[in-house]
Amino acid sequence: MTRLHTPLNELLGIEHPICLGPMGLISTPPLVSAVSNAGGLGIMGTANYDHEGLRKAIQETRELTSKPFGVSIMAGFPTAEGHARVAIEENVPFVTTSAGSPKKLAPMFREAGIQNFHVVPTVALAMKAKGAGCTGLVAEGSEGASFKSRDEISTLVLVPQVVDATGLPVIAAGGFGDGRGLAAALCLGAIGIQMGTRFIATRESPIHDDYKAMLLRLAETETLMVGRKSGPLRVARNACSNRMEEIERNTDDPAELRAHIGYQHFPKAALQGDVEQGLVVAGQIVGMVQDLPGVGELMERMVEEAASTLDARTQLAR
Ligand SMILES: Cc1cc2nc3c(=O)[nH]c(=O)nc-3n(C[C@H](O)[C@H](O)[C@H](O)COP(=O)(O)O)c2cc1C
Predict the structure, then answer these.
(1) Are 60 and 154 found together in one domain?
(2) Range of the domain at 201
(3) I need a surface site. Which of 67, 76, 106, 168 has the fewest CB within 10 A?
(4) Measuring CA to CA, how many Å separate 43 from each of 20, 23, 97, 249, 316?
(5) What total of structural domains would you count in the chain?
(6) What is the pTM of this model?
(7) Atom number of ligand 1 nearest to Cα 198
């Protein structure tokens, strides 16, 4: 089998430089362990866990895989420090932080010898994360699913600038779905990629079948950013996001915006399969999602395609 060797493989002891992005309700023990067992790095979403819930999920994942996996912590949430302590006590080797400043958490992870990559949408925030002591970065462009920065910098533009400005190891995220994208990320200077949308559409993903079926139908033009006034969030266009857009047009009241726009409508789509009235979170790469492979099959074909793409492009420079 083809292998791509990057510094991420060495850093984390993994076979493929491909990470499962943390996603509440989705990146739970079954999918996290499936990605790690297939040679990538599963990263657990913690948004739906309290501290003991996170500890249980980490222990459950350990029963499903002996390979490394990571957890992700929402740095600006009140649960952050408690989640960080659990990750340290449970000896998780890799933690990503997002949605807030890593200033408080980065020194805790550094002292515990844990790799801490912070998710950044701009060069300025990447420099701040470096200053806080993070050991690496996830540079995530605006084409990706879920919470996004108002600056809306694309992955293609963001990754090489973050690599150059910080000199830190960088995982590229936002808009990856095949081996050509993986090859492109490595050419931009990243040491690996993180995917959300593409991994939701796999056999092992614990999400309602109607959500997966919707991802197969959507074109690249059928996502939008809602919450531009309250906290931008990339989602699929449907009755739910149309209603959110309408509310945003009609009010500036923060309490009303918060009450109607956000993840509270996600379980309806993710668990109950109501993909019209519920929030379908997806990135622009959804237009490329055409099948529901197993995660192992998906990763193997991506690595094969990345290797042959890199090989073929080398022939161009003569
Ligand atoms: C349903 C959903 C929930 C997500 N939750 C989180 C989260 O809690 N923390 C985080 O850092 N990223 C979160 N993300 C972002 C993903 O981890 C990943 O970085 C992103 O989906 C990459 O872009 P892509 O969808 O184009 O692959 C979420 C994405 C989705 C689709």
Answers:
(1) yes
(2) 7-206+291-314
(3) 76
(4) 6, 8, 11, 36, 36
(5) 2
(6) 0.97
(7) 27
